[in-house]
Amino acid sequence: MRKPGLVIVTALIIFGPLYYFYRHPSEQMPPLAQFLLDILLFVCAYMISQRSAVEDAERRANQKWVPQSRQACRGLLTVWSEVQTLRLDVSEMCSIITKDIPEMQAPKMQGARTVLSAQCGSNAQRLDGIGDHLLDALAAWETFIGANCEGLECAIISEELATRKAAIEAKIAARSREKCNGESANLPSGSEDI
Fold first, then answer.
1. From the CA atom positions of the chain, what is the Rg in Å?
2. What is the mean pLDDT of residues 5-16?
3. Exposed site from 14, 77, 91, 183, fewest CB < 10 Å?
4. 3-state helix, strand, coil in the chain (%, to 5)
5. How far from the centroid of its chain's Cα atoms is residue 10's Cα?
C-alpha cells in the first residue's frame, strides 16, 4: 500500500513543472520548477539504473550456475537410466522366477506366486514413480538452463542432453525388445542357476 504523502510529493515533482510549462510556455523556467524537474530526472535515472543493475546482477549470478546445472542434468539422466535398468531387471527376474522355475509351478506354491507377483508389480510401480520424479527434476533444470544461458551455449547443452536422453531411451527400448523376444542371453533360464 502506498503512503499518501509519497504520492502527493511525487505528483508535485512530476506535475509542478508540467503545469508551469503549460501556463507559461514562452517564459523561462523559475528555479523552483527547474529544481523539481531536476529531482524528477534524477529519480527516473536512478530507478532505471537500479533496475538494470539488479537484472544484470541476477543474470550474471545465474550464469555461474549453468555449468553446475548442466552437470546436475547429466547426473539425473544417469540415475534415471539406472532406475529404468533396475525396473527391467526386476521385471525379468520376476518373470524368470514365476515362469521358468519348475518348483514355482507346483500348486502348493500358488501363495508364493501371488505374493511374488504383487511384490514385483509394486516394485515396478515404485521404480516408475522414481523415474517420473527424476524426469520432472530434469525438466526443471533444463528450464533453468534455458532461461539463464546465452547464445551457442544453450544449443550445445540442449543438444547434449537430448542426445544423451535419446541414447538411454534407445538402450532401454532395445533391452525391452530383447526381453519380449526372449533373446536375453545374460539371464539364467532354469532352477539349476538358483
1. 34
2. 69
3. 183
4. 85, 0, 15
5. 43
